[in-house]
Amino acid sequence: MALPQTWLQSRYRKNACLFVYYLIQFCGHSWIFTNMTARFFSFGKDSVVDTFYAIGLVMQFCQSMSLLELLHIYVGIESDRLLPRFLQLTERIIILFVVITSQEEVQEKYVVWVLFIFWNLLDMVRYTYSMLSVIGISYANLTWLSQTLWMPIYPLCVLAEAFAIYQSLPYFESSGTYSTKLPFDLSIYFPYVLKIYLMMLFIGMYFTYSHLYSERRDVLRVFPIQKKKM
Predict the structure, then answer these.
(1) Would you say 125 and 147 are in contact if contact means Cβ atoms under 8 Å apart?
(2) How confident is the model at residue 219 (pLDDT cuts 50, 70, 90)?
(3) What residue stretch is flagged as signal peptide (predicted)?
(4) Quick check: 2 pLDDT over 60?
(5) Catalytic residue among 69, 78, 91, 161
(6) For residue 138, what pLDDT band results from cuts at 50, 70 and 90?
(7) What gap in Å lies between CA 6 and CA 23, rounded to an integer?
(8) Which of 74, 133, 186, 217 has most Cβ atoms within 10 angstroms of its Cβ?
(9) Which residues contact 180 (CB under 8 A, 6 or more apart)?
């Protein structure tokens, strides 16, 4: 009897950790989305320009915290494939911290507002679904939404990310940010690195989209069976 009790206690601790994590992420992304929406309806296009100044710090916190998901998968707290999640997270980290945060001129672009709207809309739904799933609550509409919303929005996210990189190139070229000289007359010209990453971004999108579609198919196939059993 000790083994099942130990297993239940371990499972309870894992679920409690995941629930708290999902709750924090849900609150953070909900605050960002609500703040952006309220500011847009209150100030119109003027609010778009200073989006990063208004919510950038909270966005950085949420995206930095999302790296914990890799640890969750690695230690077995969360069941998912590590590589697809790694691609999704690093994609956002690079765009947010390397492309947007490092260039003040890029922070004022409309594409930042669009990108943040897409990111937070997806994450609000995803973390709501995950948070409820951890405590054994499931709704058919929410399950379908969480497994379907990404299909049109994720490609738009990648296009917005690519456009943000494209718009940042002149500023990286003029400022020389992250470009450096190496020994033996070698150098790293960062705009070239971004152009290479731009191509890799679409390759990664294909891999991630295939994984998410396979996951959607499995979840929506199993969900009606679980619903009947309940």
Answers:
(1) no
(2) confident
(3) none
(4) no
(5) 161
(6) confident
(7) 26
(8) 133
(9) 187, 188
Q: Write the CA distances from 166 to 160, 163, 180, 227, integer angstroms.
A: 10, 5, 20, 46
Q: Which of 108, 110, 154, 189 is catalytic?
A: 154
Would you say 154 and 216 are in contact if contact means Cβ atoms under 8 Å apart?
Answer: no
Helix axes 190-229, 140-148, angle to 10 degrees: 160
Amino acid at position 13, single letter: R
Per-residue model confidence as pLDDT tens digits over 61-113: 999 999 999 999 988 888 888 888 999 999 999 999 999 999 999 999 999 99
The three-state secondary structure class of 133 is: helix
Phi, psi of 186 (to 5 degrees): -100, 155
The secondary element (H helix, E strand) that includes residue 34 is helix 2-43
* Residue 8: pLDDT band with limits 50, 70, 90: low
**129: number of CA atoms within 13 Å, CB side?**
18
Give catalytic status of residue 105 as yes or no: no
Ordered alpha helix ranges (H), 78-189: 82-93, 104-107, 110-134, 140-148, 150-175
At position 69, the amino acid (one-letter code) is E
- For the chain, the structural domain boundaries read 11-221
Active site residue 154: yes
Q: State the pLDDT at residue 38.
A: 94
- Count Cβ atoms within 10 A of the Cβ of residue 212 and give its class: 0-12 exposed, 13-18 middle, 19 or more buried: middle
